[in-house]
């Protein structure tokens, strides 16, 4: 059963076509990462899949009753307003203290409930946004450039967290990466977007595709760099080791 799919999707803003003839589908439990240059339509594609922007042509299909957890690229909150993390987790749907505590512990920030949203670090904020998305027990997590602004250890740690969440719950993940050349090794598929789908496949296949190299240049020797973890095998997702020819960064973190 496909969770969500775009079928020959076109999106226009004014007279400009932002997405042309895009077809993409996400299956239960898989991690799909979208990469592309600035202005390639990555965020627009996510918003079209979520029903936030309309399709000019084509269609979007979602599984009946699909539960989606969404982590936006930017938080549309007035950070000058006093609001604790605990209160934020109950917007727009109130949740119990126990559920809020469990969600924060699950994403590795159990002690921030009474902190002000405005005082959180970038990494803490991203984890709080993820905790809020997980409260609905989603079948699909949609993340729009979730590691933008994080340093490399923070990025690696967040990727590991997503891998752990998928391993524990079986949730599918659709994520836009801010870095053309770095995706997490646990990605089952990478989709290269530049207004249309240029190429798609496993990280190893995409990294050697001429379409990828022609579009995205020769950063990291023209290949995708895969975040892998020395304890991947503990979770049964040994994707990094399946791609021995990729230029992998091994970030272990206790």
From TrEMBL:
Residue stretches in coiled coil: none
InterPro entries: AAA+_ATPase (IPR003593), ABC_transporter-like_ATP-bd (IPR003439), ABC_transporter-like_CS (IPR017871), Metal_Ion_Import_ABC (IPR050153), P-loop_NTPase (IPR027417)
MF (Gene Ontology): ATP binding; ATP hydrolysis activity
UniProt GO BP: response to zinc ion; zinc ion transport
Domain ABC transporter: 4-219
Keyword Ribonucleoprotein (UniProt): no
Domain of life: Bacteria
The keyword Membrane belongs to this UniProt entry's keyword annotation: yes
Record-given protein name: Metal ABC transporter ATP-binding protein
Lineage of the species this protein comes from: Bacteria, Pseudomonadati, Pseudomonadota, Alphaproteobacteria, Rhodobacterales
């Amino acid at each position: 059963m496909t969770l969500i799919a775009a079928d020959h999707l076109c999106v226009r803003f004014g007279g400009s076509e932002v997405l042309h003839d895009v077809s993409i589908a996400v299956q239960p439990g898989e991690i799909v990462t979208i990469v592309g240059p600035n202005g390639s339509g990555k965020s627009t594609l996510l918003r079209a899949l979520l029903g936030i922007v309309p399709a000019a042509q084509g269609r979007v299909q979602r599984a009946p009753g699909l539960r989606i957890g969404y982590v936006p690229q930017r938080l549309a909150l007035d950070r000058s307003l006093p609001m604790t993390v605990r209160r934020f987790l109950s917007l727009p749907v109130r949740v119990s203290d126990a559920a809020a505590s469990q969600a924060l512990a699950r994403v590795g920030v159990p002690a921030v409930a009474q902190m002000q949203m405005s005082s959180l670090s970038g990494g803490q904020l991203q984890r709080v946004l993820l905790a809020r998305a997980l409260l609905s027990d989603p079948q699909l997590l949609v993340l729009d450039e979730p590691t933008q602004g994080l340093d490399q250890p923070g990025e690696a740690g967040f990727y590991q967290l997503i891998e752990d969440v998928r391993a524990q719950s079986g949730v599918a993940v659709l994520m836009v990466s801010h870095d053309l050349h770095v995706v997490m090794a646990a990605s089952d598929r990478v989709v290269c977007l530049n207004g249309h789908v240029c190429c798609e496949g496993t990280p190893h296949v995409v990294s050697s595709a001429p379409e990828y190299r022609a579009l995205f240049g020769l950063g990291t020797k023209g290949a995708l760099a895969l975040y892998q973890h020395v304890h991947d095998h503990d979770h049964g997702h040994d994707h990094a080791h399946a791609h021995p020819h990729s230029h992998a960064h091994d970030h272990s973190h206790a």
